[in-house]
From TrEMBL:
This is Ribosome biogenesis protein Sqt1. WD repeats lie at residues 130-165, 232-265, 405-446. PROSITE patterns: WD_REPEATS_1, WD_REPEATS_2, WD_REPEATS_REGION. It comes from the Eukaryota. Keywords: Repeat, WD repeat.
Length: 498
């Protein structure tokens, strides 16, 4: 046998019979097999109501803008990666390839097999990529009135202007080129187009150093396509939000220092001798006035469609309503549709109301003038506490509705009314877009069962949600609200159909 060939000393190293019979106890628990772990995992159900998606971005989308003439043309911007020094990135895409889904249920279809097939969404392609930003793009806008230029800006302090020539409104008819760029500040917080017909292709921006700038864009002037119209430096904290009055004659801005200024950009207030001593503002309020002070700063702003008042929102749920100077030719005592009564409607600057219904910072404001009879002016405020409060401006800003659980416990990011209607669209960090009909009374419940009583018409899901990393950071809905396009913190833009 082969065992007879082993040396004798090798036999001594073999395991003894008593040792072989010994049982070794293992007090540790058995480690579950992979199959057991999979059985215990909670099933995640993904809900997607979108009809189309754009998923080329690699990281968060912070900004979205819709062409004023061709509403299917959308620009989005954000970060190209998760690193702190990741460059900014932006894209143009066209939503028109997204087909509408049938309104009637599947049982009404002539072809039941196709009707019962799973709903599919359309993948949208990039038409043009916005390049050259060294940090995240956090704000975008198209110029008025024709959307001739697209302006991108962000955390690198650069404002880049792109000429977008949409020959036919279709994807194959688009030509884009860089017009120029400017960098006067370290970071840009917001940028807005001027609505004045007399001053086309003009934009205003607010910066982290508190300054505000106005530019007019003219690509025909090759030596100076971005012309500085005005620059202002009265804010002592970051300029957090701004808005033009509906006629485009005044630029109104707010800051973390709790100041409010209405800038006389075109000299219309000076021509009427209602400019302040500084020669730059038609109206101003600061925290030195204790009636206006908001400890923690101001972060949101909106004007009513008639240019009668401006609403500003800030820390701790504070909302201040201030009368605006009236620079139009309309007499101040003329009765107009939906007019809010102001005793001194020429100079402005009167604090009409100090509201404090919500418990956390007001990050978004929206105003509508309904086309109903009698007309109603509504002000909606969205808060970090997840609530929406609607005030009736024609009744001394009385609370019309308090939706305390509008977006669960996640921050309300943006509010926007469909023009001249009672319909309000909102989005939040819960990843959901919702639409509310504010014509009925005001229930305040927070449960899903009471959503219809609170005016909830419809909601759209598809973004990841759950706060940071999955919320909806912006949306556009055109003039009619028939289609909503979102910008997600999850790096996806979705198209929803109302």
């Amino acid at each position: 046998m082969s065992s007879s060939n082993h040396p004798e000393e090798d036999i001594d190293e073999l395991l003894a019979a008593d040792d072989a019979a010994e049982e070794i106890e293992n007090e540790a628990e058995d480690i579950a097999m992979d199959s057991d772990a999979e059985d215990d995992q909670e099933e995640v159900v993904l809900h997607n109501d979108s009809i189309a998606y754009f998923d080329l971005p690699q990281d968060s989308l912070f900004a979205i803008a819709q062409h004023p003439v061709h509403p299917s043309l959308i620009a989005v911007g954000g970060s190209a990666g998760q690193e702190d020094d990741a460059p900014g990135a932006g894209w143009l895409f066209d939503t028109s390839p997204a087909g509408s889904r049938p309104v009637l249920p599947a049982s009404y279809a002539s072809d039941l097999a196709s009707a019962e097939a799973p709903k599919t969404t359309t993948q949208l392609d990039s038409l043009f990529e916005l390049q050259g930003h060294t940090d995240s793009i956090n704000t975008l806008c198209w110029t008025y009135p024709h959307g001739e230029y697209l302006v991108s800006s962000g955390l690198d302090g650069r404002m880049k202007v792109w000429r977008i020539d949409v020959r036919s409104g279709a994807a194959d008819g688009l030509q884009a080129s860089l017009v120029g760029e400017a960098q006067e500040v370290e970071e840009i917080n917001w940028i807005l187009p001027c609505p004045s017909q007399a001053h086309p292709n003009t934009v205003a921006l607010g910066a982290s150093d508190g300054s505000a700038w106005v530019y007019t864009i003219d690509a025909s002037d090759a030596s100076n396509p971005l012309q500085i119209v005005q620059s202002y430096f009265l804010h002592t904290g970051p300029c957090t939000a701004g808005t033009w009055t509906p006629d485009g004659l005044l630029l109104v801005t707010v800051s973390e220092d709790s100041s409010l200024y209405a800038w006389d950009v075109w000299g219309e207030a000076a021509a009427r001798n209602i400019v302040n001593d500084n020669g730059m503002t038609a109206m101003s309020l600061t925290g030195e006035d204790q009636r206006f002070e908001v400890e923690g700063g101001l972060y949101s702003i909106a004007t009513d469609p008639k240019g009668t008042f401006v609403a500003v929102g800030g820390a701790g749920g504070a909302v201040k309503i201030v009368s605006l100077p009236r620079l139009s030719a309309q007499p101040s005592n003329q009765q107009s549709r939906g007019k809010v009564t102001v005793s001194d409607a020429t100079s402005g600057g009167q604090i009409l109301a100090s509201l404090h219904t919500q418990g956390d910072s007001v990050e978004s404001l929206a105003v509508t003038l309904s086309s109903t009879s009698p007309p109603t002016v509504l002000l909606a405020a969205g808060s970090v506490d997840g609530s929406i409060v609607v005030y009736d401006a024609t009744r001394r800003f009385a609370v019309r509705r308090h939706i305390s659980g509008a977006h669960e416990e996640q921050s309300v990011v943006k509010l926007e009314f469909i023009k001249n209607t009672w319909l309000l669209t909102s989005c939040g960090m819960d990843g959901v877009v919702r639409r509310w009909d504010l014509r009925s009374g005001g229930a305040t419940g927070t449960t899903a069962a009471g959503a219809a009583d609170r005016g909830l018409v419809k909601e759209w899901r598809g973004h990841r949600g759950d706060g940071e990393g999955g919320g909806v950071l912006g949306f556009v809905q055109g003039q009619t609200g028939e289609r909503i396009v979102t910008a997600g913190d999850d790096g996806v833009a979705l198209v929803f159909e109302a």
